[in-house]
Amino acid sequence: MATRVLLLMALALFIFPVATATLHVKGSVYCDTCRAGFETNVTFYIEGARVGIQCKERKSLKVAFYTEGVTDSTGTYHIEVENDHGDHICECMLVKSPIKWCSTPDSGRDRSSIVLTHYKNGIVNHLHYANAMGYLRDQPLPQCHNLLKYYLADSDF
To answer: Which UniProt keywords apply (predicted)?
Structure first.
C-alpha cells in the first residue's frame, strides 16, 4: 500500500510539476551602422541599452509579466525571469538606446519571440537565447556602400 502511495505522489509531481524555476534570457543589442537590416563587419554592440521582456495572456493579450535589463560592455543582456510562462506569448523588445545617433529601432529587428517554459516543449535548459535586436544609425557610414556591394556580389539581384 505504501508503495502505491509513493508511486502516485511521484506520478503527480511528474504530471503537475512545480513551476517556480528561474529562467535566464540572454541576447544582444547592436547598432546597424549601414542601415542594412542585418549585422555586418562594421556593426557594433551597444553597452547600456535597455531591453524589456513582456509576456501576454494568449486569449486576452493582457500583459501578465514585464521586466527589464541592461546590456553589458559586450552589448549582451542577461535577464532573470521568475516562474514558468508556458501559457503566455513572450518576447524581448528594445526599450531605449543610450546612443542618440543610433536610437531608431530597426523594424523587424526590434523584438524577438521567446519561449519561457521548459515543460512540455522539450527545452530542458534554464538558459534561453533571444535573437539579436538592433537600432539603426541615423546616417550610414561612408564605407557601407562598398561593403553592401561586396555582400551582394554573389546575389541574383
So the answer is: Disulfide bond, Signal
pTM of the model: 0.80
Question: Phi and psi dihedrals of 119, rounded to 5?
Answer: -115, 135
Q: How far apart are CA 30 and CA 149, in angstroms?
A: 21
pLDDT tens digits, 112-155? 998 877 665 556 667 889 999 999 999 999 999 998 888 877 76
**Alpha-carbon separation of residue 24 from 51, 77, 120 (angstroms):** 14, 10, 18
Spans of all domains in the chain: 19-151
Superfamily grouping for domain 19-151:
Immunoglobulins (2.60.40.10)
Close Cβ partners of 84 (under 8 Å, ≥ 6 residues apart): 19, 20, 21, 23, 116, 117, 118, 119
